[in-house]
Amino acid sequence: MKFTAYERQKQGTGASRRLRNSGRVPGIVYGGSTEPAAIEIDHNALWFALKKEAFHASILEMDVAGKASKVLLRDVQYHPYKPLILHIDFQRVEANTKLAMKVPLHFKGEEESPAVKTDKCLVNHVTNEVEINCLPADLPEFIEVDLSALTKGQALHVSNLKLPKGVKVALHGKKDPVIVSVSTPAAEAEAAPAEAAPAADAAAKPAKKK
Fold first, then answer.
1. Amino acid 12: pLDDT
2. Is the Cβ–Cβ distance between 115 and 152 less than 8 Å?
3. Which helix (H) or strand (E) holds 147?
4. Could you tell me where in the chain the CATH 2.170.120.20 domains are found?
5. Phi, psi for 79 (deg, rounded to 5)
6. How far apart are CA 55 and CA 77, in angstroms?
7. Residue 193 has pLDDT above 80, yes or no
8. Measured between alpha carbons, how far is 25 from 18 in angstroms, rounded to an integer?
9. DSSP category for residue 185
10. Which CATH superfamily is domain 99-192 in?
11. Reported pTM
């Protein structure tokens, strides 16, 4: 995905405020073997780009004064209540340096699974993204999760994900986090206590004398 940025000459709070008033967003590009560079981007173009999933989870091609470079979105600061982007950070991408990046999970096949189709269970998406480590060339825009074989009482863990070649999930000390869980249908869950109640009442009544 491509976008255009411009070199930012003036820095500081006042300069950034004037830049925003003119419809531009101040930003910075860091990382790699060169010094951080101050940039500015058209606010409206950036606003619509940020609505696209690929802008957050893929390597971007940034054009500055006719020179293209590959970067990753690292941080966006928004105004507390106005539809306004205050600042944006990008990181340069080097081909031989591994990245740590959060990528979205795309779920498919849920409605066709036995858990939903046959047992009318509720499928809970515990997380919609995972952090991965890989080289830039191996970075996927998303990871597909097939739920078509999901059954009642089953849980899907990170270890069940089919990862692209060269990609590893960063667990951060967690053994095997849950990605998807399956809940019992509400009617079935309510029926169990109701069935147990008469049995409990019967046990509580004293036996009749003969």
1. 85
2. yes
3. none
4. 99-192
5. -65, 145
6. 15
7. no
8. 10
9. P
10. Ribosomal protein L25, C-terminal domain (2.170.120.20)
11. 0.80
